[in-house]
Amino acid sequence: xxxxxxxxxxxxxxxxxxxxxxxxxxxxxxxxxxxxxxxxxxxxxxxxxxxxxxxxxxxxxxxxxxxxxxxxxxxxxxxxxxxxxxxxxxxxxxxxxxxxxxxxxxxxxxxxxxxxxxxxxxxxxxxxxxxxxxxxxxxxxxxxxxxxxxxxxxxxxxxxxxxxxxxxxxxxxxxxxxxxxxxxxxxxxxxxxxxxxxxxxxxxxxxxxxxxxxxxxxxxxxxxxxxxxxxxxxxxxxxxxxxxxxxxxxxxxxxxxxxxxxxxxxxxxxxxxxxxxxxxxxxxxxxxxxxxxxxxxxxxxxxxxxxxxxxxxxxxxxxxxxxxxxxxxxxxxxxxxxxxxxxxxxxxxxxxxxxxxxxxxxxxxxxxxxxxxxxxxxxxxxxxxxxxxxxxxxxxxxxxxxxxxxxxxxxxxxxxxxxxxxxxxxxxxxxxxxxxxxxxxxxxxxxxxxxxxxxxxxxxxxxxxxxxxxxxxxxxxxxxxxxxxxxxxxxxxxxxxxxxxxxxxxxxxxxxxxxxxxxxxxxxxxxxxxxxxxxxxxxxxxxxxxxxxxxxxxxxxxxxxxxxxxxxxxxxxxxxxxxxxxxxxxxxxxxxxxxxxxxxxxxxxxxxxxxxxxxxxxxxxxxxxxxxxxxxxxxxxxxxxxxxxxxxxxxxxxxxxxxxxxxxxxxx
Length: 668
Prior knowledge:
Shape: globular
Number of helices: 27
Number of domains: 4
Radius of gyration: 29 Å
Strand content: under 5%
Distance between the termini: 43 Å
Structural class: mainly alpha
Largest sheet: 6 strands, mixed
Helix content: 55-70%
């Protein structure tokens, strides 16, 4: 039952003329195999084993036909079509016979790794006659669950809708188009009822769920269930149930999952592959290298994926780094980060293609990006310890542009700027729309990098970016990206990057973005510090030649004096108006969030999504497990108040807790 169905490769050099008519049939069997991979863990029975055996026999027949020295006769092709049709009907019958609770126990784990497999299963269930033998009521429950699962997967919060249900599969889109052509007064009524129900409070929604009124309504709608307006309203209502009535849904038949079960065929969880050990990433790197160098076009999977990436917006030096031979290996983390960055910007569009290629989008965003981020953090710390501030700043700028900013843009795309969907509006569809890159978005990403390159509480919590697309305008002004001095990671090979931003720089940048008449004066704080450090660098060279063997630390004294001057100016700006958008938590409020907090501020004048706080000395005395539990509890309470960008520091100003968006809580 757990054996895979190996299909003959496409585009094999030994392909014969008879392969042409077989291409569509092979592709059809590939889709059925993909659907079976999602179905198999729920079908551990005699029917499932028989179906697996039939699939292997059908694969063998297609392989023999592909290797035949002459084209197949029409009668042989007709027999293959009959076998494929019979195999698909058998698989559909098995899938429809499984209870929703049984699918619920396995599909979420499969979806996390193979979204394309679950999409193929949905497409399989939508085929044939849905109301055959009057079993519409049984089948609509399975379809309702699958569509909702696919639409809510990847949302930043429970109950969020990340994908448009109408655009999940071509077959579903066609069914919705046919249902939209029907003129029926029930469409307006049903849409209103489901959207209104999704806006109910917890108790009202719980009561309605127990009465099962709207569940029966789905059955009564019949084929109108697939009308675009009704389907979107139903998914919004189902998402509200997931958010507010989760316990009843689980008690209705959720079997739960075994510890460590990820929904794979053999029940064992596969360990994520390191970014530097992935052969798939190296294949993508080779394809990107060929594209950058203007090599001949290829029809391979990796070439098609790379062709969809926006490499034109890269700086010349970034394209040159992407063409390196060591991209995808530990010897070239910079080129690897650039490749991962452009890949993250297109994850929503290429999700299914990447999974069919063998890469999980979740591994790219949740495993590889943090791994590269840690590698960059180590190198940045090493540079700072050696006082190589300019190199540290260049690395931090590169990290923010290609590792942090693409993920922030993706989250904003999926959720229309980070705001939860209202019950009276359609679910967001950004995740199924192609990403359009422009010079404006590239410039905004580059300008935001410097402001986030250090462990600044508010700049890190807000993950600043200013993408040139709709939805970002709904962010609070306090989390907009401050304008940074013109610099780009693409130019670091040609010019010396700026020194790492200090507190004076951060305050000046935040004041400059506030839009007050004194912007020019406040923005000069950053220039002052940069000029001071640049002057210090030049002074060091002069001091080395003039002081000679005296060893008098002229450069150090000059640096200290200039830093004191910059901090004095920064303090004036800070206490005058720069931090007026920050709202301080009272001692009682901090005690409710966590007994370890001694200070906390919320941006956006107390209404923004960012929170920065300070922990007391007792935090250091906690055991690692206790520290992790306390961090998760602290972040959970803040998220309940709408704060999803959390940065908590220790007394030594070292970062201790980080939680940005839907990413896991990091207790450092």
